[in-house]
Specification:
This protein is α/β, with parallel strands linked by helices. It is built from 5 helices and 5 strands.
């Protein structure tokens, strides 16, 4: 199973998991919302949200360019039913340990799947132009296009 090609990011993101006008008063509230979107997509059990908060308290998931990628601890992976992403845009920003976060990409992955997902996402999120496009996205189509462009480059 580890030899198969990575699942395209766009296949892990359901339309309902894209929320482009989110507001949160704190980092933890933003993480809960990213987790809630994964929960509503049927990807996780409730307890995974706690694992996401636990991870954040251990090591920040802020990656730069106004983006954070909250995900659960290794212990939380048992709460994952299927690999999935959520994309939340916070037009007003969220104070993330002193960083201004505008986009949170929630990750749920079984086993070590989050490592592959993180590396795929990093190529999008750490590109200043793509990160800016994601911060400014106002439709789910724009989000899909940004992630699909990355899928195409991998081939």
């Amino acid at each position: 199973m580890s030899d198969e090609a990575a699942t395209p990011l766009t296949e892990l993101l359901s339309e309902s998991s894209i929320r482009l006008d989110a507001t949160a008063s704190s980092r933890d509230e933003a993480i809960r919302q990213a987790g809630q979107a994964l929960l509503e997509a049927g990807a996780i059990d409730d307890s995974y949200i706690d694992a996401m908060l636990e991870r954040e308290n251990t090591v920040s998931t802020y990656v730069g360019e106004g983006v954070a990628i909250p995900h659960g601890t290794l212990a939380g992976k048992d709460s994952v039913k299927q690999d999935a992403l959520s994309v939340l845009r916070f037009p007003e920003g969220v104070d993330w340990d002193g960083n201004d976060v505008r986009v949170a990409v929630g990750i749920a992955a079984k086993g070590n799947g989050h490592i592959a997902l993180l590396s795929q996402l990093a190529t999008v999120l750490l590109d200043p132009d793509k990160a800016e496009a994601l911060r400014n996205a106002t439709t789910s189509d724009e989000v899909y296009e940004l992630l699909a462009a990355e899928d195409d480059e991998d081939e």
